[in-house]
Amino acid sequence: MIRPHRTHPLWFAYMLHRLSGLGLALFLPVHLYVLAMALTRPASLDRFLAFADNPVVKLAEFGLVFLLAVHLFGGLRLLALEFLPWSGRQKSAAAAALAGAFLVSGSFLLRAV
User: Fold this and answer.
1) Dihedral sign, Cα of residue 77, residue 73, residue 2, residue 88
2) How far apart are CA 44 and CA 40, in angstroms?
3) What is the mean pLDDT of the chain?
4) CA 75, CA 83: separation in Å to the nearest integer?
5) Mean of the pLDDT values across residues 36-53?
């Protein structure tokens, strides 16, 4: 049985923000490893960068930028809810956060391809 509060759109915004944060936390060690590779093994970095030109990797980068943008805009929405007066436009703020995230990641994808 699904609890009533879990069908609310803001609960979905909360879960999207939480899952995007977990996804970014899982990506961070890989990112730091590639940065370390740039300092210690330039030849390995060149092979990795050649692999990164793969279209599937570009699509994964789109997903990563989407997660980052969702997390950023979702966090800004939460900060606004914490520090601004309470209003009934929370659903609109959640939708705007998702739309902004898609706009940012979509423009990144168009530029990367």
Assistant:
1) positive
2) 9
3) 84
4) 12
5) 91
Residue spans of alpha helices (H) in 41-89: 42-51, 55-83
Tell me what the mean pLDDT of segment 44-54 comes to.
Answer: 91
Token couple for 29: 């060690």
Residue whose C-alpha is closest to residue 71's, from 90, 51, 44, 98: 98
Say how far apart CA 67 and CA 105 lie, in whole Å: 8
Of the candidates 56, 58, 63, 44, the residue with the CA atom closest to the CA atom of residue 102: 63
Angle, CA of 45, 69 and 13, to the nearest 5°? 135
Pairwise CA distance, residues 2 & 11, whole Å: 12
Place of tokens 């997390």: 71
